Amino acid sequence: MDCAKFLTSVTKRRKPSIIREWAKRFIETPNGISLANGMPNTKTFPFEEITVTYKNGIKGKLTGDELSYALQYGPSQGCIPLVKKMRELQIHLHKPAYNDWDILFTSGSMDGCNKIFEMILELGDPVMVQVPTYNGILNALAPFAPEFLEIPQDHNGIIPEIIIKICKERIRDGKPLPKIIYVNPTGANPTGTVLSESRRKKLYEVAVTYDFLILEDDPYRVLQFLDKKPTTFLELDTEGRVLRLDSFSKILSAGIRLGVVTAHKEFIKKLTMHMETTNIHASSMSQMLLFKLLNTWGQDQLEQHFNEIQRFYRERRDIMLSSIEKHLSGLAEWNVPQGGMFVWLKINEIKDVMELASKKCISQGIFIIPGHAFNYDKSKLEHHLRLSYSYATPTEIDKVLTFFDPILTSFIY
C-alpha cells in the first residue's frame, strides 16, 4: 500500500532529528562514549532506588543502569527493550497478517490519536467518525475544521452499509473520499457497544474498496464481556491500512500515560519524527516500570490480571444495571453494555437533557455527562446521558440512582 498518499503536506516536510538518531545509536552501542547529546549526568539526580510492589507481593526494583535509563532521555520510538517486548506482545495478541509494521510508544492513546490526525488530515478534509463518540476525539478533530461524516451505531456498533452509501454518493457528486475513519470498536465510549465480527470484516472490506485508513482506538479491549474476544482490525489487516491504538490507562494505570500505536512502518517513521519535535519520547520512567512489570509477570500473570479486570467491571456493570432497572424502569431506555465503563441512557419524555444534567443533578451533588458531549454539533437536542460504573462504589451507584429517580420524575412531570 502507498502510505505517502495519505500524508499531509506538513507531515511530508518533517525531517528526522540527527540528535535523536545519534542518541538512539549511542544507547545501542556497547561501551559507547558520547560527546554528542546534552544529556544531564545521572549522578546529579537525587534518586538512589525506586521500588514497586505488585499485587501478587513480588517487588520490582530500579537501580543502577535501569534506574539511570528510567531517569534519562531515551529513543523517541520508545525504550529499546520495551519496544521489542511490545512487538512480541502484539504478535501474540493480534498476529498481524503482514510484515511491514512497527510500534511507537506515546504519552497515552490520546497523544497517538492527535498525532495520527495531524499526519493524515489537511484543513477541511472529510473524516468519518462513529457517533456518538468520545469527547476528546471530537475536540482533537475540531482544529482541522473537518467535513464531519457521521457513521451511526446500533446495538452491534457502526453500520458499514452507511459508509458504502456515503462513499458512493461522494463519488457520484465528484467529492473527495475520506482518507480515514475513527472507530472505537470494543466497549465503545459512550455506548458500550462491541462491533460485531461480521461488521468488522465488512468494514475492512469497505476500507479496501474505497481506499481509506482505519484508526482502531481500542482502550477497552480487555474490558469486554463477551464469551469470545473480538477479532481486531489489526488481525484483519493485510495491507497496512489499520492504525491501532492500545492504552495502558484502563488496565495498569491512567497516570502512567502510556499508549502504543501499531501501524505500517512508514506511518510509524512519520509519527516518530513528530514525536522528536514534541514530546521527544513517552516517559522513560513509565516505560521502564512497564518493562519491569511485563518481565516479572510474564504472559500468564498478565492474562490473569486481564481476567480479574474483566470480572471487576462486569460486576460493576451488573450492579448499575440492577439499580437502573429498579429506579428508572418506565422513565428511561438502555442497552446492556457489552464492554467498557458506561451505560448509555435514553431519557423518555424529555426533549433535551442539558438542564437536567447541568442544574438539577449537580445541585444534588450528582455528576453525570449529558449526551451533548459526544456530538460534534453540541447544539443538537440530546435525549441521552452517560453513566459510568467504573469508579463509584456499589453503595454510591445505588445512592445516586435512588436520588436520580425523584429528580427525573419531577423533571418530566
UniProtKB/TrEMBL annotation:
Keywords: Aminotransferase, Pyridoxal phosphate, Transferase. One of its GO terms (biological process) is alpha-amino acid metabolic process. Transmembrane segments: none annotated. Its cofactor is pyridoxal 5'-phosphate. Residues 87-402 form the Aminotransferase class I/classII large domain. InterPro entries: Aminotransferase_I/II_large (IPR004839), Class-I_PLP-dep_aminotransf (IPR050859), PyrdxlP-dep_Trfase (IPR015424), PyrdxlP-dep_Trfase_major (IPR015421). The keyword Transferase applies. One of its GO terms (molecular function) is pyridoxal phosphate binding. This is Kynurenine/alpha-aminoadipate aminotransferase, mitochondrial. It comes from Habropoda laboriosa.
